[in-house]
Amino acid sequence: MQFDVVAIGGGFAGLIAANRCAQLGLRVAVLEKETAERYLNNSRYTTGIAHILFQDMRLPGEKLLEVINQGTEGEADPALAKAFADNSRRAIDWLVAEGGKYILVNAPTGKSIMLAPPRRFKQGLDWEGHGADYLLRKLESNLKNRGGRLIRGADAKALAIADGACAGVEAVIGGKLERLDARAVVIADGGFSSNVEMIRRYITPRADRLLIRSAATAMGDGLRMAEAAGAQLCGFGAFYGHPVHRDAITCPADTMLWPFPMIDPLTQAGLVVGPDGRRVADEGRGGIVLANLLAHLDDPLSTSLIFDDLTWTTIARKGPAGNPMILSAGATLHRAYKLAELATLAGVSPEGLTATIGEFNTTIAKGTAASLHPPRTMTPLAARPILHPPFYALPLCSGITATMGGIAIDVDCRALRAGGSVIPGLFAAGSTVAGLEGGKQMAYMGGLSKAFILGLLAAEGVARASGKSART
Ligand SMILES: Cc1cc2nc3c(=O)[nH]c(=O)nc-3n(C[C@H](O)[C@H](O)[C@H](O)COP(=O)(O)OP(=O)(O)OC[C@H]3O[C@@H](n4cnc5c(N)ncnc54)[C@H](O)[C@@H]3O)c2cc1C
């Protein structure tokens, strides 16, 4: 089989790269290891809010670049960050021209794009017929109409390297190892969020105690293949994830506790304590930071979220924040009128919890939350005292949704060696790439924006490298 370009992975990054390549006159195939007609992956599971650091992707490039530089504290690769910001609006317009639809939603950080038809935030996984599913099918049919191929059940195993350049892929297709010759390969396999060994190597030694809060498809094959070809892997440490009810990990087949309820607002309104009853995290920094902090504890399955009835009957009732979804899932929720009694039910030290909450309430009443250990960030959500019985304790775990860091690339999405030289013929896009994240705030660029924008840029890089115009 001979193509100009082969993309590994039929998520948004791979299908966008493939369509744009076909549009630019290249013969293209997408290898997708899953076999179902509507195969599951992170793109199909997505909630569909497309953003750059939670800002509208249609903002002017200069504004988005400012957002990226501020959010990552300057750690994003400057040239890549600029190309990313400058092409954000164009990526959305391109997707609309492909038949994609979106609505505007109010996010805490302003207006954001949500793929349409929008998800209804129903409990558990509820992807069918919603924006991402619709757009994936549209992109597949567009690819077919342009003469490109999406080959299901094609599991890429290794890159074919000749004279230091990538010249194709070896993949198991229908049980047989096949070689696909191509002048360019785009790795778009979605990162390594389902590979416990790689999570242990690149993120936390406690990898086996995290919930894989995503499709089980992102096994890091692209990173492994790129590294074997000499590419630099970098930018690891943090991940995009959320705190999740711990019952989700003890009963992983039951998806009624993720992605919704999404308990981030509840964690920001409560206290996250360890078995000794002491706080373990600055709850005010938000769900992504909390998920990362929990993942690095000696035991990520050791914390409880404490809140009072006022929080449970107000904040937890807003949207999918947990009330009543946690109850309807039959998940553990300890409840008691006395804090010491609650602590005993939750396996937390009664003395420790009572002391922690007493100190917390007094300190925030004085307006000196920064003096707490750990301190409590007061914006965007101020701390609330735990005052109104009954009190609740919810067992927590950390859910990993998408990885940050991966294959080093340049502005054309060409894979780079450690010294910065290009590996001819090898490109990467989507959740498998590095260079756009970083900083103390663990800035999460947006899995969709990385797939949308880098999918386009990779295809245009392939076209340029093949001597074609990237402008058509
Ligand atoms: C529940 C959930 C909610 C989310 N919500 C949002 C959101 O609202 N906003 C946002 O920006 N992001 C969100 N994300 C993240 C975002 O959806 C993903 O980061 C993005 O879709 C990744 O796209 P991708 O194309 O890089 O990878 P994927 O969609 O993971 O696609 C990669 C594909 O490669 C295939 N593959 C892997 N290995 C091989 C191999 N060896 N050979 C062949 N094929 C292979 C996989 O089967 C898969 O189909 C969410 C993710 C989840 C799980």
Main attributes of the structure:
single chain, 472 residues, 16 helices, 20 strands
Number of distinct beta strands: 20
Given the structure, what is the number of helices? 16
Distance between the termini: 27 Å
Query: What's the CATH architecture of the largest domain?
Result: 3-Layer(bba) Sandwich
- Give the C-alpha Rg: 23 Å
| Average pLDDT | 96
Folded structure, characterized:
The protein is α+β, with helices and mostly antiparallel strands and 472 residues long. It folds into 2 domains: 2-235 and 404-465, FAD/NAD(P)-binding domain (3-Layer(bba) Sandwich), CATH 3.50.50; 239-400, Succinate dehydrogenase/fumarate reductase flavoprotein, catalytic domain (Flavocytochrome C3, Chain A, domain 1), CATH 3.90.700. It has 16 helices and 20 strands. Strands 1, 2, 7, 8, 9, 10, 19 and 20 form an 8-stranded mixed β-sheet that branches. Strands 11, 13, 14, 15, 16 and 17 form a 6-stranded mixed β-sheet that branches. Strand 19 (414-416) and strand 20 form a beta hairpin. The mean pLDDT is 96. Residues 8-14, 31-34, 39, 41-43, 45-50, 154-156, 188-190, 214, 217-219, 221, 259, 401-402, 430-431, 446-448, 451 line the site of flavin-adenine dinucleotide (FAD).
